[in-house]
Specification:
Order of helices and strands: HEEEEEEEE
Shape: globular
Helix content: under 10%
Largest sheet: 6 strands, antiparallel, barrel
Radius of gyration: 17 Å
Number of strands: 8
Amino acid sequence: MAFDVDGARRVVGRILDDKLEAWRDSGGRADDYLDETTGKLVPPAPDEVLIWDGLGAVMPLGRPAITKPLGGALAQEPPTTDYQAVLPVQAPELRPDDVIRVAGSVRPGGPRDRQLVGRRFRVSDKNVGTYSVVRIVRVQVID
């Protein structure tokens, strides 16, 4: 007998109200070049490729709760960031150093946190967890 997750999908779907974009630098740092004037590595432009856009949520850790591992389950602790991105399971699996940009919000009355709109976050860890309806990754503010 299959477990019906439609109810959970509808409830979780209500918190996925941020318009998110996921970007990947396919060359990584290997294609950056040295600016001899500043001494810094500079990425070529354009350097990132859009790999996904859709509805998700960027929120502080703890909502929805990340629980301690149960018998054999894997979890990475302690957290390396104060934020997490909640994505639908249909979103592609993200890798460390991928970038998530909060492009806007579809939330009635405006975004949950207006200061997050336009911000970019670096994926810091592999998936914290993939559940029946969402995938959660830890992210760090990069600008």
